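go over this chain:
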Amino acid sequence: MKFLLSFLLMITFLNADYNEGKEIFDNKCASCHKGYISFSKLKENYFQRNNELLNLEMPTVNMLAWAIMESSRKIGDPSDPEMRVIEIEEYLKEYLANPDINNSICDAHVLKYYKKKEPMSISDEEAVNLAYFFMEYKENRLKSTPQKIKVLDKKYNEKELLKEAQEQGKHFLVYATSQSCYFCKKMKREVLDLEEIQEKINDDYIFLEVDVDFVTLPFNLKKKFKGMTPTFFVLTQDGVLLNTYPGAWVKKDFIEILKENL
């Protein structure tokens, strides 16, 4: 029995492929499920605008991937990826064949906005490739849209920055630093350069690095700046200041800063 299970797992992984799954999703699912929309914009849409901002009738692709892989209703054990892909495969086949809101893994708060899904049949091969697509979605999205750290020079354009933030539905995280700042270098090395931190920033923020010895802070922040580096400013997508955080921060506290402004 153990040998048979190992054999089945091996066959599953040999046939599974992220790109194949993406093609299946694009051909069979993308007409209903929209592409990536930042979670900050999704939160605004559902929790502040009652879905009147985006008028979504189905969850976006990143909402599906998050629900399957990271939510409280996530499928399978993250420490056992071989078994997890099979559990996701089985869930997809069962749910698509008989869509039932009571069996959905989406956030209960947003389900009321969705239209009834029609049954859909997929093959075992399609299901396993879709499972792989969702399992590797976040990693591949980050590879295709790497962390953008904008180091502002004297010629930056505030209107262009605001346009970018509004199009992406992201806040600004403005980082006041200087070349002579010891604690800036320490925090960069121990916190800002960490892949986990860069992913969290890139999900919800446009990160602007400003060397205050040479470049003026954007959005009239000079009036709020007390001269301490590092200092972090969090602003809305419209350039409105939400919070100011002077000083260097350890990883745990910096993650809380990122969370509390969303």
Summary: The mean pLDDT is 88. The first helix runs from residue 2 to 15.
